[in-house]
Design goal:
The chain has 431 residues and is an alpha/beta fold. The protein contains 13 helices and 16 strands. Helices cover 29% and strands 20% of the residues. The strands form three sheets. Strands 7-6-5-4-3-2-1-8 form an eight-stranded parallel β-sheet. A six-stranded antiparallel β-sheet has the order 9-10-11-16-13-14. Strands 12-15 form a two-stranded antiparallel sheet. The relative contact order is 0.11. Bound molecules: 2-acetamido-2-deoxy-beta-D-glucopyranose (4 copies). The site of one 2-acetamido-2-deoxy-beta-D-glucopyranose has 2 residues, from loops.
């Protein structure tokens, strides 16, 4: 009781205070974060279904990741077969396809960019065969395209591909990355000497901070020590699972695991169910649309994992769906989640999440092996049943004729995921 009334007072104080007000004992940012914790959801039904009790409580406060990161990463398609040409051509392709304009702005190099040994001053070295021009020159090129460059290291003795790790080299490596103009660090978990992640990840946070350069810090400890519970104070995103594979089974397993931590995501720090596999060939187009829809709804990082220099038009159509991207990048930053599962084995699923402007994103996801109808009562997803809602189909790009009143449903193909935005239209009593 006490906690709640204090929070309400704090909220009122933040809302009513003139700009520039000083908060005794707490920064204005901390007060705003505390207010956000209880502020975002207007009705009790929404608050019950979309628990945000941990939203905004853990903040790194480096000013980054106010919405989930978007961009590209080399691993899912290229694995270790990378070089500076691929990275440059990818930057070119992000711009020429229009993906950069849609927000995909990080070009992230994964493992294998560095030489197998440190240099004579103990410094990391780019592999001279594959990155002969060095990372600084690559960063300059990527920046000249209006994009940002990400790099990779490991909170252990070695990276997963057995290049030097950054454990106990945090300050030097962070300073080197900053001097190259790096904007993002993915920090992996191999060869970690059995030391707890809570000990291994904060030193790199502090080292990055000390450089004075704003560097997005992406923790990749595979969800082993329940990072949602602590990583918000350490990084801008944290992997909640092991590596994704380009299969329906892997993608759905990971979605379910990531779902568990929904209440911990929020502006500044996001749950990371790993990078996208869209376009890599192991799933059907319906499955890839579902993958993209659910990742967007879960406020997951949207990091493309295919070869953007050579995408099919179907792949491009999925990755460039602006309406789905807008759900992911919504300013409210509340992670959508699984709200209903119906039928045999619960394979008829409804996932939903609140958006700014009293809107709700809703997906009807068929995880059964045949076509099904999925229906819901509007209050089941937290919508106020005294309103009729206009419904926008984000894959058909059309607003349905007639408003939804009371219930809503659709026929959904095998493994398909329909995605909608519900916006209050008129009060039912006025119909
Ligand atoms: C760079 O890597 C790509 C992808 O693996 C490969 O096709 C290409 O031949 C490589 N280029 C050079 C110059 O090594
Ligand atoms: C370093 O941390 C402080 C305290 O959280 C924060 O205000 C500042 O923006 C950070 N600086 C960088 C470069 O991340
Ligand atoms: C482009 O992708 C197609 C498959 O979609 C593949 O067959 C072809 O080899 C790729 N081309 C290059 C240059 O990678
Ligand atoms: C779904 O509902 C429609 C309309 O009520 C009905 O015609 C159709 O047979 C149903 N399909 C399935 C797979 O149950």
């Amino acid at each position: 009781m006490m906690g709640v009334s204090l929070r309400v007072l704090l909220l009122l104080a933040v809302v009513l205070a003139p700009p520039g007000t000083r908060w005794p004992g707490a920064s204005r940012a901390a007060a705003a974060a505390a207010a956000r914790r209880i502020a975002p959801l207007p009705t009790a039904a929404l608050r019950r279904l979309y628990d945000t009790s941990n939203y905004g409580t853990l903040q790194l406060n480096n000013g980054l990741a106010l919405t989930p990161q978007m961009g590209w990463n080399s691993w899912n398609f290229f694995a270790c077969d990378i070089n500076e040409t691929v990275i440059r051509e990818t930057a070119d392709a992000l711009v020429s396809t229009g993906l950069a304009d849609l927000g995909y702005n990080y070009v992230n190099i994964d493992d294998c960019w560095s030489y197998v040994k440190r240099g004579n001053k103990d410094q990391l070295l780019p592999d001279p065969k594959t990155f002969p021009s060095g990372i600084k020159s690559l960063a300059d090129y990527v920046h000249s395209k209006g994009l940002k460059l990400g790099i990779y290291s490991d909170a252990g003795a070695f990276t997963c591909q057995v290049r030097p790790g950054s454990l106990r080299h945090e300050s030097d490596d962070a300073a080197l990355f900053a001097s190259w103009g790096v904007d993002y660090l993915k920090y992996d978990n191999c060869y970690n000497l059995g030391i707890k992640p809570k000990e291994r990840y904060p030193p790199m946070r502090d080292a990055l901070n000390s450089t004075g350069r704003k560097i997005f810090y992406s923790l990749c400890e595979w969800g082993e020590d329940d990072p949602a519970l602590w990583a918000g104070k350490v990084g801008n995103s944290w992997r909640t699972t092991g590596d994704i594979e380009d299969t329906w089974k892997s993608m759905t397993d990971i979605a379910d695991k990531n779902n568990k931590w929904a209440s911990y995501a929020g502006p500044g720090g996001w749950n990371d169910p790993d990078m996208l596999e869209v376009g890599n060939g192991g799933m059907t187009l319906s499955e890839y649309r579902a993958h993209f829809s659910i990742w967007a709804l879960m406020k997951a990082p949207l990091l493309i994992g295919c070869d953007v220099r050579n995408m099919t038009s179907e792949t491009m159509e999925i990755l460039s769906n602006k309406e789905v991207i807008q759900v992911n990048q919504d300013s409210l930053g509340i992670q959508g989640r699984k709200v209903l599962s119906q039928g045999k084995g619960g394979c008829r699923e409804v996932w939903a999440g609140p958006l700014s402007g009293k809107r709700l994103a809703v997906t009807l996801w068929n995880r059964c092996s045949e076509t099904v109808n999925i229906t819901m009562r509007l209050p089941d997803v937290g919508l106020d049943g005294s309103y009729a809602y206009s419904v926008r189909d984000l894959w058909k790009h059309e607003t349905l004729s007639g408003n939804a009143v009371g219930t809503f449903g659709a026929q959904v193909g095998v493994h398909e995921c329909k995605m909608y935005i519900f916006t209050p239209a008129v009060s039912v009593s006025s119909i």
